[in-house]
């Protein structure tokens, strides 16, 4: 089987690492990096730490407005898919790289497979929600991380090609877990007790009122706050005149490598984030999570009591961090860490 995998943004390297490791011993994989993320700390570090093979192609699209970025990816990717003639194109998650891969594959490849299918936040203002829905609706094989995600697809009229292998990010996390104790904190001065925060969602960074509330909330948390900042957030803090306040009240550091970051999640008292992947990693690592959004596509973590949605309200952020505690039990929400193996088996059954 010849699989063409499309990646481009930080969380996709984490997801693809698990599948690639299972795929490559038995099949041919062509790895395409769209170039959506290009700074070494958002891209290269993941290839090194997760031992991902070098991409066969880098489309080098870089940053830009949605339409231009997606269109550039599509135009460059179409040539490659036409030349390579893969049996299946594999896309991950919900970024513009996902959508570009899906739209090209739907018209030029015999089969399109989507890893992380069926997730919905219910908020169509999120570019990711648009990307998820469109990708699911043109996919042939849909790999859902949970039963609930599969039920969502069914409600939308998609039943064929759906399976529930679990979450590939859990596979990657389990793979590195034993290496965490030896991890160098990458120059970060890690306090004994701290809250780990990340913010990068457009809905938070591009709205000065929301970003200001979040900074305010994080600054008022009694524990030190370690904040590995996405470049988009650093730019927004400067643009909205919030940089000085943030730098004074929070430990703003560069984006961390994956191993360091996971170790930071695992040791934190609590995580405050608007990231999708980080909500799950906090759950896997038994760290309570406060989500700086009104909705989440990972709603099982909220129902299980490990995650609370507080939006961008300073008072609610402080209260939620203060009261955060481990619930008495932890259900298995997203499989048992063998999602990649199950995905490869399903591809073999359906595509070969
Ligand atoms: C993208 C995804 C988001 C995902 C996130 C993971 C979309 C619509 N959004 O958001 O779903 O959660 O990646 O981190 O696809 N920049 C750099 N260096 C880089 C990359 C970006 O400085 O290597 C800056 C640029 O100013 C750019 C901005 O970050 O304009 C936003 O980058 P972009 O890839 O468009 O979106 P993300 O916010 O990273
Ligand atoms: N991550 C990382 N360093 C950081 C922040 C996040 O390695 O400084 C990892 C994190 O462990 C997770 C992934 O990046 O695996 C999540 O990416 P992000 O929050 O950017 O995107 P999302 O999951 O929201 O799409």
Describe this structure in words.
Keywords: Isomerase. This is Non-hydrolyzing UDP-N-acetylglucosamine 2-epimerase. Its EC number is 5.1.3.14. With about 350 residues, the protein is an alpha/beta fold. The protein folds into two domains: about 1-165 and about 335-350, Rossmann fold, CATH 3.40.50; about 180-325, Rossmann fold (3-Layer(aba) Sandwich), CATH 3.40.50. The chain is built from 16 helices and 13 strands. The protein has a seven-stranded parallel β-sheet, sandwiched between helices. The chain has a six-stranded parallel β-sheet with strand order 10-9-8-11-12-13, with helices on both faces. Helix 3 packs across helix 4 (about 95-110) and helix 9 runs parallel beside helix 15 (about 315-325). The termini are close together. The mean pLDDT is about 95.
């Amino acid at each position: 089987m010849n699989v063409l995998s499309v990646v481009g943004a930080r969380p996709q390297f984490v997801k693809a690492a698990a599948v690639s490791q299972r795929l490559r011993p038995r099949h041919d994989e062509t790895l395409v990096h769209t170039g959506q993320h290009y700074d070494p700390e958002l891209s290269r570090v993941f290839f090194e730490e997760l031992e991902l093979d070098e991409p066969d192609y880098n489309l080098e699209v870089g940053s830009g407005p949605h339409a231009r970025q997606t269109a550039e990816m599509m135009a460059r990717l179409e040539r490659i898919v036409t030349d390579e003639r893969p049996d299946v194109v594999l896309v991950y998650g919900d970024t513009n790289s996902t959508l570009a891969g899906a739209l090209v594959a739907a018209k030029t490849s015999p089969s399109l497979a989507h890893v992380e299918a069926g997730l919905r936040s219910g908020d169509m203002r999120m570019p990711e929600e648009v990307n998820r829905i469109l990708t699911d609706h043109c996919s042939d094989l849909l790999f859902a991380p949970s039963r609930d995600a599969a039920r969502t697809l069914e409600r939308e009229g998609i039943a064929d090609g759906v399976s529930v292998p679990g979450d590939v990010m859990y596979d990657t996390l389990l793979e590195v877990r034993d290496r965490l104790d030896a991890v160098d904190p990458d120059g970060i001065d890690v306090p004994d007790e701290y809250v780990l925060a990340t913010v990068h969602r457009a809905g938070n960074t591009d709205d000065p009122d929301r970003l200001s509330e979040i900074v305010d909330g994080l600054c008022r948390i009694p524990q030190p706050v370690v904040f590995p900042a996405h470049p988009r957030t650093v730019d927004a803090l400067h643009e909205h005149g919030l940089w000085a306040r943030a730098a004074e009240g929070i430990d703003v550091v560069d984006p961390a490598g994956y191993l360091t970051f996971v170790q930071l999640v695992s040791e934190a008292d609590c995580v405050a984030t608007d990231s999708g992947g980080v909500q799950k990693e906090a759950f896997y690592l038994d760290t309570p999570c406060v989500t700086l959004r009104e909705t989440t596509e990972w709603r099982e973590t909220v129902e299980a009591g490990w995650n609370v949605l507080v939006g961008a309200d300073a008072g609610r952020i402080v209260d939620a961090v203060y009261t955060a505690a481990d619930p008495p039990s932890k259900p298995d929400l997203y499989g048992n860490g063998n999602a990649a193996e199950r995905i490869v088996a399903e591809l073999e059954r359906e595509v070969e």
